[in-house]
Design goal:
The chain has helices spanning 46-50, 55-64, 123-132, 137-145, and strands spanning 5-10, 14-19, 28-31, 39-42, 66-68, 71-74, 84-85, 91-93, 98-101, 112-113. With 148 residues, it is an alpha+beta fold. The strands form four sheets. Strands 3-9-8 form a three-stranded antiparallel sheet, with no helix packed on it.
Length: 148
């Protein structure tokens, strides 16, 4: 993480990522290239990647995995996994797979992104996500809409 932060309970979302410093619009909050706790997998490699894990471990992976620009990122060991969804986000992922502040963010605010901006049409990712998370894609995606 490029910011000072803490992890604490987020209403109706479990744990969340909260800033302990002022963040200016355009600041880099998180950069995947600086994280040694993530794994990058393309969609073709995904099935081989997850086959070594138990069902519970797969569930944990897919609970935090996101895809962007044709790659899937396993961030289960990185605190960026606590970045929750919001329909009114204060950060986004840019083309370099960095989380960027969309506006000034005050101390104590939760860092949120709109999960719908991630890439969800990768065939193996979509198939495994629905299988492991036990639901159709519409059911899984509609859960985000219930989170403000």
């Amino acid at each position: 993480m490029n910011i000072e932060y803490e992890i604490k309970k987020s209403p109706n979302k479990g744990n969340g990522l909260y800033t302990k410093q002022q963040i200016k619009k355009g600041d880099i909050i998180w950069d995947i290239t600086k994280s040694n706790l993530t794994s990058s997998i393309n969609d073709d490699e995904l099935l081989d990647y997850i086959k070594k894990y138990s069902d519970q471990e797969k569930y944990n992976i897919f609970s935090y995995m996101f895809c962007f620009n044709g790659m899937c990122y396993d961030i289960k060991n990185d605190d960026a996994k606590y970045t929750n969804h919001s329909n009114n986000p204060n950060s986004y992922v840019n083309e370099l797979c960095q989380s960027i502040a969309m506006r000034d963010i005050e101390i104590g605010e939760e860092i949120c992104e709109n999960y719908r901006t991630y890439q969800h049409d990768l065939p193996n990712y979509k198939e495994q996500m629905t299988k492991i998370m036990k639901g159709t894609w519409d059911i899984l995606a509609n859960r985000w809409d219930k989170i403000v």
